[in-house]
Design a protein that fits this description.
Order of helices and strands: HEHEHEHEEHEEHEHHEHHH
CATH class: Alpha Beta
Strand content: 15-25%
Largest sheet: 9 strands, mixed
CATH superfamily: Spore Coat Polysaccharide Biosynthesis Protein SpsA, Chain A
Number of strands: 9
Helix content: 40-55%
Radius of gyration: 20 Å
Number of domains: 1
Structural class: alpha/beta
Distance between the termini: 61 Å
Shape: globular
């Protein structure tokens, strides 16, 4: 059968539209690691166990000396890219991963942490498809470092409001998944911060109100207490960096610090009710 050129054009256009509508988004997940031989296996396996079919997994190791790379290499056939070289900290490692990322959506799973369920990434993508958002965040669980089934603290993100951000509120960083197109517009982590770079990035992305943000009312991650994300020994340095970071965004450091702590009260209430 010979199609008239106009019919052929319409047919090709319909096929293109249908393909565009059904094309699933690719998700890049980045794990930075340094001397985490005791926890990196669980982290990796939580990503590889996801039921979502199109995940680009990037692991960036800072030249570990404790055998972490031996564990990582056990999974090398299932990890899209492995980088192992000295760096100057977690944020430099994450930035290396971001530069290598090719996914439509990018998220982090720290080497001490693991995804909440095998459906976590599928649920994240579904929410992006429903909302067409640039930025997604959700809920998280802080668990015992040894017994990861024991919940120590429950973090409920709650609904998004820009005014909350302007008064010190931020989503839980490891629950944040961001369109790569937004990252390209807003920039990478500021490596001059050793602890506060995640808060700096979140304020930089959210304060202006340009990005479309959505809240996924589900648990996304389990975070070990005492890991990179929760180490209490770093709090003094965190305080100094927070002051500098708030000032850089034109915020009153003392007032914003107080507001940040006050935001934890309704968060704890919401956690009790969930």
């Amino acid at each position: 059968m010979i199609f008239h050129s106009t019919s052929a054009h319409v047919l090709r256009r319909d096929i293109y539209i249908n393909n565009k509508e059904t094309k699933k988004m690719k998700v890049t997940i980045i794990t930075s690691c340094y001397n985490r031989v005791k926890t990196i296996r669980g982290c990796i396996e939580s990503v590889l166990a996801q039921d979502y079919p199109d995940i680009e997994y990037i692991v960036v190791d800072g030249a570990s000396t404790d055998g972490s790379m031996d564990v990582i290499n056990e999974y090398k056939d299932r990890i899209a890219k492995i980088i192992s070289e000295p760096d100057h900290g977690m944020y430099e490692a994450i930035n290396k991963g971001l530069r290598a990322a090719t996914g439509d959506i990018v998220g982090l799973v720290h080497s001490d942490d693991f995804l909440f369920s095998n459906q976590t990434v599928s649920n994240i993508v579904k929410r992006f498809e429903e909302t067409h958002a640039d930025f997604l965040y959700g809920d998280g669980l802080f668990v015992d470092a040894v017994n990861t089934q024991k919940v120590v603290r429950n973090w409920i993100g709650g609904s998004y409001r820009l005014w909350k951000v302007r008064h010190g509120w931020l989503p839980l960083h490891p629950t944040c998944y961001i369109k790569r197109s937004a990252i390209e517009r807003k920039g990478l982590y500021n490596e001059s911060y050793k602890i506060a770079a995640d808060s700096d990035l979140l304020f930089r992305y959210l304060l202006g109100g340009e990005l479309s943000v959505t809240y996924l009312n589900e648990y996304i991650v389990r975070m070990r207490m005492g890991g990179l994300s929760t180490d209490s020994k770093r709090r003094k340095q965190m305080w100094k960096e927070d002051i500098r970071m708030y000032q850089s965004h034109g915020m009153n450091p003392t007032l914003t610090k107080i507001e940040k702590m006050l935001w934890k009260v309704p968060q704890f209430v919401a956690a009790k009710l969930k």
